[in-house]
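ok, trying the design again with the full structure, not the truncated one.
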């Protein structure tokens, strides 16, 4: 019996939007990892990056992921970097169904353009820098994302495709 679904993928891939739709469809709870971290530590992601650096953030993120791994009937929207640190990807694969929402750097660039402010890794990037950053980071992260049990085409998959993949 599946108890958890983890949506993974780059920033801007639609993990939160799809996660909310999917949780409505399945009657499960949506847990956005960034919000979970912010609520637990009473700080924004930006403040955590400023105060503890990215390494400090990754440790907090890994700790939260293990806490969430005990929840039942949850759709988890992982952070874009979550699968790429410690053995987080193995933890997710062992405790639920993992779905990688895959998109090209060009589409991610379009979607991220207006949504950079709360994301410290891209907040200060110019238009020109953003696409180069996404392309490079995605290449680095793809080996981790590819360990997902399901690969979803982010530009064509609808909520019913996700439900079917979870049930299969
Ligand atoms: C990050 C993605 C963010 C957030 C943090 C770092 C990343 O989450 O965890 O800013 O390393 O890609 P979203 O993918 O939900 O934006």
């Amino acid at each position: 019996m599946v108890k958890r679904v983890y949506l993974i993928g780059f920033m801007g891939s639609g993990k939160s939007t799809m996660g909310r739709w999917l949780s409505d469809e399945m009657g499960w709870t949506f847990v956005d990892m960034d919000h979970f971290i912010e609520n637990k530590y009473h700080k924004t992601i930006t403040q955590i990056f400023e105060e503890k650096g990215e390494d400090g953030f990754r440790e907090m993120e890994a700790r939260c992921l293990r806490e969430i791994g005990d929840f039942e009937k949850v759709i988890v929207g992982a952070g874009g970097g979550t699968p790429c640190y410690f053995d987080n990807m193995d933890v997710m694969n062992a405790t639920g169904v993992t779905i990688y929402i895959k998109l090209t750097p060009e589409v991610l660039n379009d979607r991220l353009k207006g949504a950079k402010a709360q994301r410290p890794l891209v907040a200060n990037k110019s238009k020109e820098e953003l696409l180069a950053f996404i392309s490079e980071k995605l290449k680095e992260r793809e080996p981790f994302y590819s360990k997902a049990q399901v690969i979803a085409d982010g530009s064509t998959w609808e909520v019913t495709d996700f439900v079917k993949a979870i049930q299969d």
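Keeping the full-length input from now on. The beta strands are 4-8, 29-32, 74-77, 97-102, 150-153.
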